[in-house]
């Protein structure tokens, strides 16, 4: 990996990156709908931020969920999108909202219905069919969020879905952390081709003496095509598959920091965040 952001006494942005809009928000998630439309969710304010000029200017939609925050946003099409979140402290837990105008306005679909406090991960394969993960549960919808049904997790609780992605158009892939005790966890990857009726285990790694700084939780998964995919996580975890997730090659990238996001432009060109910088690989 080649460092794109270099450091003197702290990190400075060099020529490859330039700020287009600076504000006071701390972002939980961001979705680039197309080259001009960007929708993001901040950790505070129960707002949805949107831009229709590539991020040069930014507006926001204020939802009714004061005291709550949003954790994830996903757009299965250029106009239809979903965001999820909640709170453990206010009046609105397990919130799911929807937009049909590319993020300019949003409608509430559900809140205060399922166990736990926040929906944390979301992924839709089309405008109607998607998976939503809470703290220790997993739900699905076939009608654009008008109705939700809780489905059986592929592992027994206590377990948490740490990432959701798609392989092609029909296969959902999940990263899961299964805690066997306070300081011991097993990290797994499952796939489903029938929206959670059946699951296939694709990866498993058990780890002892885990804590927030020492773990290999699978934080993000990205597939370039039906065969080639990557996953990243704690302790510099880097996984690669060439056969649609059936098998994974595991490495750990020095200095073994927490990798939280992965994006690939092609099978060879990959980006991730390492120890406060943005890194690029040009050799797969």
Q: Level of helix content? A: under 10%
Helical/strand content category: mainly beta
Overall pLDDT score: 90
Q: Note the gap between the termini.
A: 10 Å
Largest sheet, order of strands side by side? 1-26-25-24
Shape: globular
Per DSSP E runs of 2 or more residues, the count of β-strands stands at 26
Low-confidence segments: 1-14
Q: How much of the sequence is in beta strands?
A: over 45%
Q: Biggest sheet, in brief? A: 4 strands, antiparallel
What quaternary form is this?
single chain
N-to-C order of helices and strands: EEEEEEEEEEEEEEEEEEEEEEEEEE
Count of helical stretches = 0
Question: What topology does this entry show?
Answer:
Elements: E1 2-3, E2 6-7, E3 11-12, E4 27-32, E5 38-42, E6 47-51, E7 59-62, E8 69-74, E9 81-86, E10 95-99, E11 107-110, E12 121-124, E13 130-133, E14 138-141, E15 149-151, E16 159-167, E17 171-181, E18 184-192, E19 200-208, E20 218-223, E21 229-233, E22 237-241, E23 249-252, E24 262-264, E25 270-274, E26 277-281
Antiparallel strand pairs: 1-26, 2-3, 4-5, 5-6, 6-7, 8-9, 9-10, 10-11, 12-13, 13-14, 14-15, 16-17, 17-18, 18-19, 20-21, 21-22, 22-23, 24-25, 25-26
Overview of the molecule:
The structure is a single chain. By secondary structure, this protein is mostly beta strands. Helices cover 0% and strands 47% of the residues. The chain has no helices and 26 strands. It has strands at residues 2-3, 6-7, 11-12, 27-32, 38-42, 47-51, 59-62, 69-74, 81-86, 95-99, 107-110, 121-124, 130-133, 138-141, 149-151, 159-167, 171-181, 184-192, 200-208, 218-223, 229-233, 237-241, 249-252, 262-264, 270-274, 277-281. The strands form seven sheets. The protein has a four-stranded antiparallel β-sheet with strand order 1-26-25-24, with no helix packed on it. Strands 4-5-6-7 form a four-stranded antiparallel β-sheet, with no helix packed on it. The protein has a four-stranded antiparallel β-sheet with strand order 8-9-10-11, with no helix packed on it. The chain is globular, with a radius of gyration of 18 Å.
